Every structure is written in structure tokens, then in C-alpha cells.
Amino acid sequence: MFAEQTAIAMLALAIAGAGLCCGLTRSHDVLRAVVMISVVELALAINVWARVLAGNGSVTAADEWIYIDAFSAFHIVALALVFALSSAFAAVYFATEVAEDGFGRASARRFGALWLGAEAAMLLVLMSNNLGIMWVGMEATTLLTAFLISLHPSGLSLEAMWKYLIICSIGIAFAFMGTLLTAASIRSGNAAAQALFWNYVAAPETRLDPTLMKFAFVFVLVGYGTKAGLAPIHSWLPDAHSQAPAPVSAMFSGFLLNTALYCIMRFVPPARHALGSGFASGLLIGFGMLSILVAAGFIVFQRDAKRLLAYHSVEHMGIIALGYGLGPLGAFAALFHTLNHSVCKSLAFFAVGRLGQRFGSHDMHRIAGALRADWLWGTALLISLLALIGVAPFSIFMSEYQLLRAAVGAGAWLPLVLFLAASVVVFVAALRHLIDMAYGTPGTGARLLRDGSLALPIVAVAAGLLLVLGVWMPLPLLDAIGRAAAVVGG
Amino acid sequence: MQPLLNTIQAVGLLTCFALLATSRIGACIRWLSFQGILLGLVPLLLHADGLDLRAVLLSSGNIALKGIAFPWLLLRLRARADFSREVEPFVGYIASILFGILALCLSVWLALKMKPALGRAPFEMLDASILLILVGLFLIISRRKALMQVIGYLVLENGIFLFGVVAVVRTPLLVELGVLLDAFVGVFVMGIAIFHINREFGSMDVDRLTALRG
Amino acid sequence: MSKFAAASFLPSICALVLAPLLPGVINRTKAIVAGRRGPPLLQPYRDLVKCLRRGALYGEVTSWVFRLGPVANLAALLAALLVMPLGGIAAALSFKGDLIVLVGLLAVGRFTTVLAALDTGSSFEGMGASREVHFAVLAEPALLLALATLARASGALSLTAIYGALTPSLWVAVSPSLALVAMTLLVLELVENSRIPVDDPTTHLELTMIHEVMVLDHSGPDFAFIQYAAALKLWLIGTLLVGLAVPLRGTWWVCLPAILLGMAAFGAVIGMIESAMARYRLVRVPQFIVGAATLSVVAFIVILA
After folding, report:
1. Residues of A in contact with B114 (CB under 8 A)
2. Residue of B nearest to C297 (CA)
3. Which one of A61, A185, A389, C74 is most buried, counting C-beta atoms within 10 A?
């Protein structure tokens, strides 16, 4: 009972917050409001999660238009966590710009409204039971986040924004085609199934036409895969991530890409019922491998730090997709990896963003001696990049290890070998960049920056999570991820 | 009913070719508007079991949006943001038309493959929708001006909308309205983006947006 | 099987006698629209007789190919007349696949004219020949597809049978396709006979000519043959269009006046098109023809479904 109100409250709060930001007068007020709202959202999200796990496995609200099961609840909590961290970081990051008059009232209002609006849209996607409304939410995220990329309009950011807008709009249009084909493929079952309510579409008793479902899944994979950053349709990703301000990049990598993968996974149970488990898994493994290999290739030649992190995102999305294709154990590993990657990539973008402000550029040749120039964010950079390339004892090592076990268990030898090879390449390349950036003597170009009070807690929470989850999996979390995996893993 | 659907299919196919071959942006926008109005009539014609509120709402919403609102937005954008009124394609007009003919053959083939699974969908509308999707994609890839890319995107949307109308039984009205709203906001956002691009670069030529590489 | 009834020579006789009247109607229409009185309707006949009376002049560099050109062209068109029905009136010859023979004969005529033009060794004629063939490459598929659409619509493979089946009820049943075929045939008429907007028949600037420049060096009876063959071609493609557009079928004394009236109206329409438009830039002409080809492709696809 209370859980339904909580779910609706989360949506309403985010939308109200977006409206509120349009009316505030000072930039600092906007930033503070954003932080507070995101913390409240985090609390509400954890509440919903607890209720889903304690109850009968799902929360339904608003006449079945809202449906939160273990899979959605997990993603909602991860979303809220990343949002809270990123909002806090935005307060720190933009405070510097406000002090230099680079972030005026108009920019702040635009940022606040679009930021909270994007959170509301993503929550709509994660909570919606109706596949059509899920699509509407994804399209809304594209439109709302486009102007976040070009928050500070310049030639490069406008180019990144235009590429993002066009490529993702085409992708979303394809995803809509997939949704329509899914609806057209329903041969029998509830009328609600034909109205595209997921819990009826995915129910085993609904019969789906195999040919149409095949087309539908391919369209959905290619369409939502564009937004998820799967190769070869990832071309907007490096540009958008590198040109957006650091908090926005963190939100993109930390949560938008995962939301798109979530949408793809929602179509896997119906595909499995209609076509058997081989088809969807094979496609997921294929796209996953391609993403990992393409990203590994591009990481070697990177020069811009944020572009490097963007290609890491492509790689990790590929790893998650690979995991989803490797059966139940793989789905567990993929979900765990989702959480780890979100936290780790956010921390990495925070560190790079802050160091970029300090050194005046994101060019990796210009950033040197980060540990000495700024002990907090230098350490954050070191920890996050080490974690990202899979160094133990951080949690990404654990989730990748579980993925390898799943691959061995599923007998997927070729993906296993290719994944290991790509990981080695990425390890060496990224470590080389990291050592150049973290050690050495900082040049004279480093500026002095004052960190707000939120900086240390952000780094502590994020790094702490990465470290703790790498050595200890709390039982409630294990149970929650297991139940989430069961929804899509089969 | 059938001859009317045939006429709509024939004219719809012609609008696709017209969009591929027209060399002035204003004429392209007007062809797009005509296409939107034409395809907006299809929901009214398809429901042989009497007109219901849903079909009328869908039809009028689409005609208002795609036949009137979007072209008006695009014409305003063209007036404020562009100096030359030519399309300036990467792929020439004759090659575009030849591609259109190939796309037509491909769409007929695909529609024949899908027809057994989609019993109640009229064949003509199926292959028209696939052609619209292919032509929309081609316009996005092969045209130099950002405004033409938006027009290509709208043609793509038209194709998907037509497919939805003929192939799907009934999605809830809320979903349809959500889709229309998204399309509207999408075009609006793209228009603002083009305006900014034009202000920054002095032209809408996407060939200049190549600084970010690798 | 071929039918040799008396009524079936009617289309050929009408063509032979009335074909030169068509350019006369066109010129008269253009003049009236321009505010002049214009030449008399029977002027083309007088021009033909004038040319026949003169002697021909042959250049020293030309060979028998040059002499063959006009004769072969006329012969091909006379042969084409035999398979061409006039609306509902049967042609002298009809057999399955005679629509391909029609297109083939038109191609033979064009081929011999082009050879004769190349035989003169003059650059103007060569330029005209190259343009003519370029446009023909684009226009012939359009003509074939248009005829194929008509064949599919009426379910027959012989021109007489096709045109016999083009009744008003067929129009009602498949109007989009037939309308598109009519538009294609109109454009093809303008292309094949070098009318505005493809070519200006009254220009005196050789660099802008297409058909006129190919026949620049012919004189006397050869020139008469060429003029007469051009008029026959105009009539032929005109009957293709008017036979489609005037779907009156029945006994010959009912359809014949209707068709002849249709041809006269057709001439007037061409005259008005010529008066209202200017010639397209040469780069745009292929686009125009490909557009017409697209119309016929669309018509064919629509009729297939």
C-alpha cells in the first residue's frame, strides 16, 4: 500500500523539482535544491526496494501502469545512488564555475530543470509496465539530456549534441518499430497483453508469432542498443561524453546507458518464449563482444581523458550485454557489474572533471602529477581507473570474474578468449595513461581550487562501495541481485 | 475502400520520390506536409467497423501535427536560419531516385515476407510504410543540411506511424498521445539545436561538424 | 492470330492520312496562345510536298548509311503502325508480345537516324546523337514499364487486346495505376518527339538542339521522310495515350470520332504545354525523364499488389 504511493511520489518529486528549478534565483540555490531532492529520491528508492523484496516480489500501482519488480527495483536504486552522487558532485563542480561567473542564473536554471527532468524520465522508464510508455520515457531522456550536453554552447559541444540527437532519435525510432512489431506479434492472450503491458506480454501463456518476434527483437536491440552504446551504433558516445560537463557525463555513463540496456532486457523474456533462448542470447553475446573489441581498439589511441572514459563505457556496456547472454549466472554477474560500473565510472568522471578544472584541459598530456596537485581527486582518479580496468580487490574485478565463470559454465570459449585478450589490451593502455596522469610533477599550470564540503563524502562513499563490494557481498544484496537476475535470466 | 487505399499508396510512394528528387528546401517541406496529411487519413479509412473516437483523434492529431505544425516550424526555421535555399545533397538527385526504386523493390519483398504473419494489414500500406522508413534513413544519411536531416527523421516517423496503424491491433490511446507528444517535442528540440548550430557555424552544413574524430 | 477485317486497317489509314495534321494543330495552338493567327492547319502537308519536289544533296563524306537512315526510319514507323490499335479499333496485326515489337521498332528507327547522323562526321550531329541516345536509355524502360502496367491491368499481352480491355470499369477499378501510366505517357511523348521542355523544335541554335540537329544535313525527299516519320511517331505515342485516356469502346463508327477528337485535344494540350514552359537546362532533362520512369515504376508496383 505505502509502496505504491512511494513510487508515484518519486516521479512527482522529480517533476516538481524540475519545475522548482525554473523559478529559483541564485545558482547556489539551484545546486542545493538538486542535491536535496536527489538525496530524498535515494531514500525513497531504497524504501521501494525493501518493500519489493519483502513483499511478493513486485509493486503495482496506478491501475497496473506502474510495475516494479526485483529487476526494476535494483535499477531504480542504482539510478538514485548515481544521481545522488552526481548531484553532490555537480554542486562542487559548478560552484567553481559560479565563482568565476561561468555559470549564471540562466545556465543554472536550465541545468536544474533538465537534470531533474531527465531523472523523472528515467524513473518513468524503469517503473513503467507499459512498453509504449517505456519508449516515451526513453525518447524523453534523449530530448532532455541533449541540451545538457551543450550546457556551455561551443562549436564542439553543439556538434556532439547534434550527433547525439540525430543518432539517438533514429535509434529510438527503430526501438518503437520493435515495440510495434512486438504488439503485432501477439497471437493470443489477455487484451492487456495487446495493450503492451509487460507483465502480460512476458507471461508464458501469451503466444507470440516467431517471425514477427524475431524482427521485433532485432529492431529493439539495434534501437535501444544505440542509446546503450553498443558497437557499431555507439558513435555518438565518445563525442557526447567528452563535450558534456563532468556531472552530466557521469550521469550518462552511470545511468542512461544502463536504462537503455534495461529496456532491451525487458524484451528478452517474450523473445525467449517465442524463439527459445538461443536467439536472444546469441545476439547479446555478439553485440557485447563487438563493443568490447571496438572499445579496446580505440582506447589505445586516446588523448582526451573523458573520451577515454567514454570508450571504457562502451567496453563495460559490452561486458554487461555479454553477461546477459550467458545464462542465469551471467545475468547475475551482469547485474552486479551494472552497479559496480555505475559507481566506478561516476567516480572516474568526477575525478577527471575536477582535475580538468584544475589543469584547464582534459588532454591527458597536460594532466600530470595529479596525486600531488590534488590529493583527494588524484586519489579518486587512481582508485577509479584501477578499479575500472579490473584490478583486485575492487568490485569490478569480482563481477568480471563471475562473468568469466559464467562463460566457462556456458561453454562460450570464443567470447571468453576474446574478452580476456581485450581486457589485457585495455589494462595496459589505460594503466599507461593513468600512470602518466597520476604520478610525476604537476606543471605550473595547475590552479588552486577550493573543494566544497561535499567533496570528501562523495569520494569516500564511492571508493568505499567499490572496496567493500569487492571483498564482501552482503546477503540482502546477494538475494536482491539473484531475484533480479531471475526475472530476465530464465 | 480498396481503390482509395490504392490511391493513397500510389500518391504516398510518389511523395517519397518527390522528396528524394526535389532541390529546394521549401518544396521538400511542403511535400512532407502533404505526406503527413495523406497518411493521417489512413486511420479513418482502415476501420471498416465504423469510426470511433480513437481513430478520429489519432487521425486529427497526426494531420494537425505532421501536416501543419511541423512544416510550419520547419519553414520558420528555414526563414531564420538559412541563406541558401538549395538542398545540396551528398548523393545526386538521379542516384537518389535510383536508390528510391531499389528501396521500393526491397520494401515490396519485405512486405511479402511479413504479410503471412500480419493477416489483417493491407499489403499496399505495408510496403508503403517500409519504403517510407528506407527513404527517411537515406535522406538523413545523404543530405548535407541539418534541416534536411530533420525532414528525413520525420519521414522515418511517418513510416513507423503508418506501420503501427495497419499492423497493430490496438495500443492504448495514452501511448499514442505520448508518441505524438514526443515527436512534437523532438522536432522542437531539433529546431532549437539547428538554430544554435547556425548561429555558431554560420550555416547548417553538417559537413562542417567533423572536428570530433577518433 | 492476325485479323484482316476491313475495320482493322482503319488505324493505319488514319495515321497515314492524319499524322501531319498533329504538328499543324500544335503549331496553331502555340500561335493562338501567343496572340498570332499562325500557320494554316494543313501547312505540314504543303511542307512535305515541297520537300518531295526538291532534289537531295549528299555530302561527299557520307556513305550509304546516310542514305539509309531516313528510309529505314520511315519503314520502321510504318511497320509499327501495323500493330498499333486506335483506341478500341483493332490493329491490322496483333499477336502476343507485339508491345515489345512496337518498342523495338521505335528503337530501330532511332538507331538508323543516329547512325545517319554519325555518318556525317559533323560534331553537331554527333552531339545531337549522343544526347538523343542518352535520353532514350532513360525513356525506354519507362515506356516498357508503362506498357507492362497496362498489360497487367488488362490481363492481355497484345496491344489490340490491351486497348480493347481499357473500359471505364477498368479505370474505376485501378485508377491510380492508369492515371500514373497516362502521366508517364504524356512525359514520354514530350521526350520521344523532342518537344519542350526537353528540346525546342523551333530553335535555330544548333548547340541547344537534340533531334533537329541530328537531321541537319538531310534534304529533299530524305527530309520529307524524316518529317513524315516524326509526325507518325507523334501520332503513335499519341494514340497510346489517347487510347488510354478516352475509354470509349464499341463499334468503330462510335469510337472513331471520339478518338480523333481526343487526338485533336491532345495536340492542343501539347501546344499549351509548349507555350507555358521553357526548355529545361540540359542537366535537368535526365532528372525529368527519370522522374517519369519513376512514375511508371510506381504504377507497376501498385498494379502488382
Report:
1. 211-212, 215
2. B101
3. A185
pTM beyond 0.90: no
Do the chains B and C touch each other, judged by at least 3 C-beta pairs below 8 angstroms? yes
Q: In DSSP terms, which residues pair with A68 in a beta bridge?
A: A59
Minimal Cβ distance to A180: which of B160, B182, B193 = B160
How many CB atoms are closer than 10 A to CB A457?
12
Query: Are A185 and A177 in contact, with CB atoms under 8 Å apart?
Result: no
Q: What is the DSSP letter of B143?
A: B
Q: Are C292 and C139 in contact (CB under 8 A)?
A: yes
Say how many residues make up chain C: 305
Residue type, A2: F
**B160 vs A166: CB contact, 8 Å cut-off?**
no
Residue of B nearest to A178 (CA): B160
Q: Please report the DSSP string for A407-447 in residue order.
A: HHHHT-HHHHHHHHHHHHHHHHHHHHHHHHHHSS---TTPP
Cross-chain residue pair A212–B117, CB shorter than 8 Å: yes
Assign B90 to helix, strand or coil.
coil
Q: Which three cell numbers mark B41?
A: 487519413
Q: What are the tens digits of pLDDT across the range B156-197?
A: 999 998 888 888 767 777 777 788 888 888 888 888 888 888
CB A67 within 8 A of CB A35: no
Tens of pLDDT, residues A56-81: 777 787 777 888 888 999 999 999 99
Write down the ipTM of this complex. Answer: 0.91
SS3 assignment, position B205: strand
d(C-alpha A441, C-alpha A368), whole Å: 6
Q: Count H helices, E strands: chain C?
A: 13, 0
**How does pLDDT run across A119-145, given as a tens digit for each residue?**
999 999 999 988 988 999 999 999 999
